[in-house]
Amino acid sequence: MTQHESIDLSPLMSARGTVRLPGSKSISNRVLLLAALSEGTTVVRDLLKSDDTDRMLDALATLGIGVESLGDNAYRIKGCAGDISNKETKLFLGNAGTAFRPLTAALALSGGSYELSGVARMHERPIGDLVEALRQLGADIKYLGNEGFPPLQISPAKLAGDTAQVRGDVSSQFLTGLLMALPLLGRTAKVEVVGELISKPYIEITLAMMARFGVQVERDGWNSFTVAAGSRYVSPKEMFVEGDASSASYFLAAGAIGAGPVRVEGVGSDSVQGDVRFAEELAKMGARITMGPNWMEASGPADGKLKAIDLDCNHIPDAAMTLAVAALFAEDTTTLRNIASWRVKETDRIAAMATELRKVGATVEEGADFIRITPPQSSVLNPQSGIDTYDDHRMAMCFSLAAFGAAGVRINDPKCVAKTFPDYFTEFAKVTQAVPVIAIDGPSASGKGTVAQRVADALGMHYLDSGALYRLLGLAAQRHGVALDDESGLAALAGKVDIRFEKGETWLDGEMVGDELRTEEAGSAASQVASLPQVRAALLDKQRAFRQSPGLVADGRDMASVVFTDAVLKVFLTASAEARAERRYKQLKEKGMDANIAALLQDIQARDERDMQRSVAPLQQAQGASLLDTTPLNIEQAVEEVLTRYRVLS
Q: How many CB atoms lie within 10 A of CB 202?
């Protein structure tokens, strides 16, 4: 995909519903490798379908392992009993750390010659500590690029020591890879951890999966791990992969921010994954959490406001990223500590998170192993541009939550979620409810502005008169000396002016304008500037910013077709030209202004023709819009008809 691809998330008002989680990435790739190294055949069910698991499956097939898809995320893996048949090949593993690190260890001790490479970012992720530990066991590994980083050349191992030391403070995947490979040595072997071990829950997953395949690891706390001689992997015949606890965090946070309840199924109190403890930390922020053996559910705080926390996140390194975005909605400052491992993930997650949080107005302090987030003073987040995701799936999924406080959020490169959760945005949409929009369009003098304003008042929603935006821009152009045919000048001006609609009044740069916008001169200027593509584009974000809870009623030419394409109700309000001329005549007379009904009719007919023929936002009934002919109706009846249609839909 190109760097320009993005997904626009509408501003969200609430969240509720149920999500069935995809399989855990951590468990999926561990199980695939262990099944491949086992005696016997294993049927793996509920496997995560993602880029990481695809890389592992492709690698196993290339190595000569029998891999058969059974459909419905199930695979039959014919184990090699520790003797990989293909002794010489090249493997490309993308950016899949959960495939690259364990395969490096297993292949380094398997007696073959292999070249392992990945994408550019994988070649920036350190692997030196794992390589050094494997060399202590006799592995022959050379760097094909920068020292300490992939790509790697692996040659057959030589008989060597039975103890390896590995740092514990860089990546738990190093220790995981070593542990899973130790039975291939055929002798008693030990791994000693140097320094503090990070991400301990992921090692618990490794030990639990090894036990399921018949290998028990003797441990001395978190200091050392020993695999006895004669240990071998034996297929359990069938394995079910738990739902991904890290992925659960986004939906639980959505429930906490958006009132909830949101339930995730596939992971719960019986899980072997440490990231289920994310729910406990979310509860410290005020969320209401309930849990069963295979499900978790989150609702918002009783008082509706999340609380800031100061947390050591060693036990939930991946899920802690979700807390960083949830902090945007908390009172006071949140500090997340002991997250140095973020620096060596798919991207430097501390730097990336700090950069993108600042885009939505947060004050952020970052350090070597911590991040501190103070939410914006305004309750409405205001992203300056799209959220960049750095080819990091968790960045994309985390920042979907920012849509709860913004006038919509644009996520750049959203397909990066394929690494662990290809259908994430579809599932997220199922349990979130966007701020509702009623879009009302129609020809000039059809009454759409009056009807829209009264519908907004009846529902307690915000109101946007898009036609007034163009009138206001025409008025601002006159005041600033910008010609009405100066497209670039008008577009620049559109981004600067301050426009507000409050209590039935219209304000331009802090000044109430009102009647100035109702003149024929203002209407003519609006029609002229509205035909300019750069001007319409410049006003798009300003229009969308009006979409705030509890909802918006917007009237205007492209409200339903361009600006709010997901409007819950689209109405095309019309009336005969004669009826519209008569209404306009009465309005002008009530204001003490001169009017000629014949001239008004001629003007309306001419404007209809011009509006229907223009190339930009022509007058037409939008797809999905319902027609409402108000020729025989008064204003009250037209308003009631729109309200009735909305109530039916909502």
A: 23
Query: Is 52 among the residues known to form the active site?
Result: no
3-state secondary structure at position 175: helix
Domain that holds residue 68: 25-240
Is 504 domain-assigned?
yes
Quick one: tokens of 139? Answer: 């592995």
Kindly report the CATH number assigned to the domain that includes residue 606.
Answer: 3.40.50.300
Provide the number of structural domains found in the chain.
3
Distance of alpha carbon 300 from alpha carbon 255, whole angstroms? 6
Is residue 1 one of the residues assigned to a domain?
A: no
65 and 214 part of one domain: yes
pLDDT at 607 over 80: no
C-alpha to C-alpha distance for 645 and 650, rounded to whole angstroms: 9
CA dist 462 and 399 (Å) reads: 26
Pairing mode, strands 88-92 and 511-512: unpaired
Instruction: Record the pTM.
Output: 0.79
Question: Position 528: which residue type?
Answer: Q
Is 506 in contact with 593 (CB distance < 8 Å)? no
Measured CA to CA, the distance from residue 613 to residue 128 in angstroms comes to 67
Comparing CA positions, the residue from 182, 166, 163 lying closest to residue 174 is 166
Residue located via tokens 């750049």: 412
Q: Are residues 429 and 466 in the same domain?
A: no
**Whole-angstrom Cα Rg for the chain:** 31
Identify whether residues 399 and 532 lie together within a single domain.
no
Tell me which residue of 152, 274, 126, 272 sits closest to 209, measured CA to CA: 272
592 belongs to a structural domain: yes
**What does residue 541 show for φ and ψ, rounded to 5 degrees?**
-65, -35
Residues 6+ apart with CB under 8 A from 185: 109, 137, 162, 227
Residues 494 and 599 in one domain: yes
Residue ending a domain, choose from 434, 461, 477: 434
How far, in Å, are 84, 433, 641, 642, 644 from residue 648 at the CA level? 63, 17, 11, 10, 6
CATH number, residue 212: 3.65.10.10
Angle at the Cα of 304 (from 302 to 309), degrees rounded to 5? 90
Report the alpha-carbon distance of residue 417 to residue 419 in Å, rounded.
5
Paired tokens of 212: 């399921």
Is a pLDDT exceeding 50 seen at residue 647?
A: yes
**Torsion angle, alpha carbons of 475, 476, 477, 480, to 10:** 130
**408 plus 494 within the same structural domain:** no
Q: What is the pLDDT of residues 228-238, one digit of tens each?
A: 999 999 999 99
Question: Confidence class of residue 1 from pLDDT cuts 50, 70 and 90?
Answer: very low
Same-domain pairing of 426 and 470: no
The single residue of 244, 275, 318, 558 carrying the catalytic annotation is 318
Residue reference for tokens 């530990």: 133
